[in-house]
Structure formats: C-alpha cells, structure tokens
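---------- Forwarded message ----------

FYI, see the Membrane protein record below. Original note from H. follows.
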Amino acid sequence: MNRFSYAFCALIACVEIAAFGVSFLNDMQNNPAATVPLGVLWLMFRYFTIWTNTLIGLVFCYIVLRRRMLSPAWLGALVLWILIVGLVYHLLLATGAPLHGLDWWSNTLYHSVAPVLVPIWWLFCAPKRGLRMRHAALWLIWPALYLVYALILGIETSFYPYFFLNTEKLGWGGVALWCVKFLIALWLGGAAIVWIGRVLGWLRLSR
C-alpha cells in the first residue's frame, strides 16, 4: 500500500468515526428518553445507513492499523453498499428541508461525503483483480439481511425506518415490489462494479 492509498484510507476512517460520533450526539439530543448509550445505539442501528457506514468505518480502521487490504470482493461490496446509501437518500429520502447543526453534519458525512470518498478510493487505490459476476449476487446478502431485520423491527414495534418498508401503509405486496426493485438495482450496480474492476485490471490501472 503506497502513501497516497494509506492517507486516503485514514481520511475515510476519520470521516466515519466523526460521522458516528456526531450522529450519536445528535440522537442523544433529539431523544431525551434515550438516557443511556445503549438506548441511543438502538435508535441509531435501526437504519441501513448506520449499519453500512459503521461497517465501512471498521474496515478502514482495520486497513489503517494493519496496513493490509481486504479482498477485492469485500472492497467492491463496500463500494456498492455505500453508493446505495447515498443514492437512496438523495433520490428518495431527502426532503429538501434545510438541516442545521449536528443534523446537517451527520447527514452530510453519512449520505454525501462517504458515498463519494469510498468509490473514488476504490477506483484509484483498491485491488480489483479476481472480481467475478457471482460476487454481484453475493453482495445482495447484506442488504437482504437488513430488509429482514427492518421488517421484523416494523412488525414488533410499528416503526419502519424507511417509507418503502412500511407494510401498514403499502401492504406486503407494495413492500415486496420495492424490495424486488432494490435487489435488481443492487445486482445491476454490483455487475457494473465487477465490470469496471475487470476493465481497470486489464488496463493495468489497479494494483
């Protein structure tokens, strides 16, 4: 790993650590009932955004501390998942209402900064050789597990993290349709990442 790649990894790790800290403080301020850290964490980890960004933060902290890359398949998966976080937020969830203070910082770091930095790092610094189309299918496991978790959460608590998972309003058929759309989009996105990685490998632009 060269110095540029290492510094880029450190930057992403710092962004994720800062985002988690800001989000934690923001949720603590906005939910006075959550008086203990575990209560705040429970509120945070209802969202795919938090799960995915936390995973990315842990991975990049590992890379920085151990100075070792993960496999191309793992790194490609992280790119796909963080792109979904950014795209879904900006295309489906962002209301356009102005955000202030910690709200602005947490939303910006999680939904805009990380979804830009990670793919750029992947393009220029990450190993990509060995990516196969089967990886695009394997990369569906993480979001599929979250969908199951979120639906169980909704059934048990009547809280739905995202409108497209609200079975009370959309019905199971409506939610199933959204899930199918997302899984198709994820597979296509994964296939595109595999293709880009293989092309860059052929052009000797990846390490």
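H. also flagged this: The radius of gyration is 18 Å.
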